[in-house]
Write a structure and sequence with these properties.
The chain is an alpha+beta fold and 340 residues long. Among the domains are: 1-55, Uridine Diphospho-n-acetylenolpyruvylglucosamine Reductase, domain 2; 221-332, CO dehydrogenase flavoprotein, C-terminal domain (Enolase-like, domain 1). Helix content is 31%, strand content 20%. The chain has helices at 15-25, 38-43, 80-85, 87-92, 94-101, 106-111, 114-118, 131-137, 165-171, 273-277, 285-301, 312-332, and strands spanning 8-10, 29-32, 51-54, 64-66, 72-75, 175-180, 183-188, 208-214, 221-228, 239-247, 253-261, 268-269, 337-338. It has a 5-stranded antiparallel β-sheet with strand order 4-5-8-6-7. A 5-stranded mixed β-sheet has the order 12-11-10-9-13, sandwiched between helices. Strands 1-3-2 form a 3-stranded parallel β-sheet, covered by helices on one side. Helix 2 links the parallel strand 2 and strand 3 (51-54). The two termini are 31 Å apart.
């Protein structure tokens, strides 16, 4: 049986109190919301905080508002289940609703939060194991060891970003609001990431994600999320694909974005997606040809490593398949795309 280590839990009622606790206790403190990822990691000895700063009692983190200008404001403490089921999110940011609805399983989505998924730690099959397993292996670069078991001789951790909502928020050009000892700051989600699997976020240890702001979408906005995983629920993504299409009144694509996750330590934007899609009709043979070209470009750019369960060569072969399916789902409003 895996047991939680002895830990003190602090229960602030405001963001300012939570920040003060993180400042007071420094590196031995960690924030906890739903705990669906943190608690298992603590049982495995991956995190060893002496103080957990519980965020569930902070009302501000439950903010959920669609403003009159179309800006969607989501508190970091809003549950994934609530986001997936909300008609406003389904209508204005369908890819986000779909991604939230594909995280883990129903029970975990009711506990897990948007902030927790955005801030999810990177994952690796050599790291996310019990202490006994890791000790027998000699540990790894990310925790207690000096060797990367994915890249022989590697000096940089390549644990993979595995948060389903992050790529959808990137396609939506979302802004993240953090609060720390220096006050509040806004960060474009694109600017949050490092390519380091150990610390893949540009974040102070005293900072808390307060809310996610999704700007107004274009009138013809369409989106979808595709998730490759072994089972129809529970599993982290072996590949995640977030697609955005902005379709004009004439039916042509006026804006497009495509972001992949679970390949590297940060979500990866397909560089040529907009170039190949903008100006193309959003249906018919021309669209199919453009989608095929984007899928080929994604395949050329994506190089999965053996850092998460599943054959990495097969995962790469599935990149163009899921890219094409997700783009067609976005165009037709038939998402999400996932294994059942």
């Amino acid at each position: 049986m895996l047991r939680l280590p002895k830990t003190r839990v602090a229960k602030p009622t405001t963001v300012a109190q939570a920040v003060a606790l993180l400042v007071e206790h420094g590196e031995v403190a960690m924030p906890i919301a739903g705990g669906t990822d943190l608690l298992p990691n603590m049982k495995h000895g991956l995190f060893e905080p002496e103080v957990l700063v519980a965020l569930g009692g902070i009302k501000e983190l439950q903010r959920f508002e669609l403003q009159t200008d179309g800006t969607l404001i989501l508190g970091a403490g809003v549950s994934l289940d609530r986001i997936a089921a909300d008609e406003r999110v389904q209508r204005t940011a369908p890819a986000l609703a779909q991604a939230a609805g594909l995280v883990a399983g129903p029970q975990l989505r009711r506990m897990g939060t948007l902030g927790g998924n955005v801030m999810l730690d990177t994952r690796c099959q050599w790291y996310n194991q019990t202490h006994f397993w890791r000790q027998a292996l000699g540990y790894c670069l990310k925790k207690d060891g000096t060797v990367c078991h994915v890249v022989a001789g590697g000096k940089k951790c390549v644990a993979a970003a595995s948060n389903d909502t992050a790529p959808t928020l990137m396609t939506l050009q979302a802004t993240l609001v953090f609060e720390g000892r220096s006050g509040r700051r806004e960060v474009a989600i694109d600017d949050l990431w490092h390519t380091d699997g150990i610390h893949n976020k540009k974040l102070g240890t005293d900072e808390i994600l307060v809310e996610v702001r999704v700007p107004p979408r274009a009138t013809g906005h369409r989106g979808a999320y595709g998730k490759l995983r072994e089972r129809g629920s529970i599993d982290y993504p072996m590949l995640g694909v977030a697609a955005r299409l902005d379709v004009g009144r004439d039916g042509a694509v006026e804006g497009a974005d495509l972001v992949l996750v679970a390949l590297q330590a940060r979500p990866v934007r397909v560089r040529r997606a907009a170039e190949l899609l903008i100006g193309v009709p959003s249906s018919g043979d021309n669209f199919a040809e453009a989608v095929a070209a984007v899928a080929e470009a994604a395949y050329a750019q994506a190089h999965p490593m053996p850092n998460i369960p599943g054959d990495h060569e097969w995962r790469r072969e599935m990149v163009p398949v899921y890219v094409a399916r997700t783009l067609h789902a976005a165009a037709t409003g038939t998402g999400p795309v996932h294994h059942v």
